[in-house]
Amino acid sequence: MSILNPHFSKRLISWYLDNKRDLIWRKTVSPYHIWLSEIMLQQTRVAQGLPYYLKFINAYPTVQDLANSPEDEVLKLWQGLGYYSRARNLHATAKRVTEEMNGVFPDNYKDLLKLKGVGEYTASAIASICFNEPQAVVDGNVYRVLSRVFGVSTPINKGNGPKEFKNLAQQLIDKEQPGTFNQAIMEFGARHCVPKNPNCNSCIFNDVCVAFKKNEVEGLPVKIKAKPVKKRYFNYLVVLSDNENTILKQRIGKGIWHKLYEFPLIETLEEVDIETLKNLPQFQDFSENLDFRSISLFNEEAVVHKLSHQHLYTRFWILETAKNNQAEIPISEINKYAVPVLIENFVSEFFENY
To answer: Is 99 considered catalytic here?
Structure first.
């Protein structure tokens, strides 16, 4: 590394200045806007995250505006972006910055880490871009660039791997322009040193890249395989009353989609037919006072909704009933509620011509 170290940041930043995308958050050093963009782009592609960023800064021009909005409204605006804990943490941090810090974000890495939902990566990004503090970011793009250029085979998701890569990035960072360096290495990983079939022949580091010389590009970075994906079977009970109302319930327990709304749910160990469903104690308890007159299956083939560590095999059961006290939400107002994209897709399809 000693041979490459003095030249690494210069090559990288030079490439970045010639090739960087014209992204709106790169035109500001406002901690609020940088924080918002970094939280949104975690585990999200720029193309997907950009429309949400624009919606948020339009709805909430300042951190105070975000803090003063209802959480349900924030979740609704976030709907479809996934990983909803990010949105809840975003709102909680906005309230703390507004109420306890007079609307002013901490100006250093150590104190930024104390904010809810702000980890090492986000704190490093804000500290370097907004306050010129030389704190190196390490994300998937950075892992890929460093592991290939320097031939690091330490697994990125186990043991001392994250710390080793953080230390390497910290040694390489340009202390005079840390924010530019951080954005450059992330951009290089996202656009040139891509996961599959990178164009190594035109790479600015191909004369020194260990992985390229050893023909190990496709094998780096090393990542220990995750646990097997868990299969879950969801049965949503979509109640339709004669007065065109339905039932939505808010998820309040731990786990996925906390505080989002959904139709009443019965989870089973496998797919069930209509008779099996009707004989389940959960269904009988739910329908006891419902007085439904018919039940039918909307989708014979389950919708498979893939999350990071679980796949949801989902079927929607339509229950028609007379007017009743349980169904309090007008069908015409379903779109006002923050729901998982799985529910949103069903609502769009089923109620389009209802």
So the answer is: no
